[in-house]
Design brief:
34% of the residues lie in helices and 0% in strands. By secondary structure, it is mainly α. It is extended and about 60 Å long. The model has no long low-confidence stretch (mean pLDDT 80).
Length: 94
């Protein structure tokens, strides 16, 4: 979910020159036809999730941005958002 807020975060100091559209592209999986029955049903343990390179780039950008935030803003961004009955997100002001 994405909840729009009026909170502004300065991101100008972050170095995002290495991040482009290719950074967010899905990695192509290698699927080949196998005629061997043993290989057909063998479960290949593939690593799911972002690569170590992407994790390092995300951490670098996050650290740069978080240094410029006030303590209360950091806490606000970490807070888990939830709605209860009769709470409508379109009527809320953040």
């Amino acid at each position: 979910y994405c909840i729009a807020t009026s909170t502004k975060v300065e991101v100008g100091s972050a170095d995002v020159s290495s991040i482009n559209d290719a950074f967010f592209a899905k990695e192509a999986s290698k699927k080949g036809k196998s005629k061997d029955a043993d290989k057909m049903f063998a479960a290949e343990a593939g690593k799911a999730g972002p690569s170590d390179e992407k994790k390092a780039a995300q951490k670098k950008v996050d650290d740069t941005i978080s240094k410029g935030l006030a303590a209360d803003t950091k806490q606000y961004l970490k807070t888990r958002f939830g709605l209860s009955s009769r709470m409508y997100p379109h009527e809320m002001k953040f």
